[in-house]
Amino acid sequence: MGTPLAAPGLLFLLAGTAGLCRAFFSLPLRVSRPAAPSGSLPAPVVLRPASSSRQPDPPSGADGLALASDPGGTLNLLAMVENLQGDSGRGYYLEMLIGTPPQALNILVDTGSSNFAVAGVPDPDVTSYFNTELSSTYKSQGIDVTVKYSQGSWTGVLGTDVITIPKGIYGSYTINIATILESENFFLPGVKWHGILGLAYNALAKPSSSVETFFDSLVRQAKIPNIFSLQMCGAGLPVSGSGTNGGSLVLGGIEPSLYKGDIWYTPIKEEWYYQVEILKLEVGGQNLELDCREIQEFSSGFWTGSQLACWDKTERPWSLFPKLSIYLRDENSSRSFRISILPQVSTFFTLQCYRFGISSSTNALVIGATVMEGFYVIFDRAQRRVGFAVSPCAGKRNTKVIVCLFMIFYLIKCS
Question: Is 68 exposed, middle or buried (0-12, 13-18, 19+ CB in 10 A)?
Answer without folding.
Answer: middle
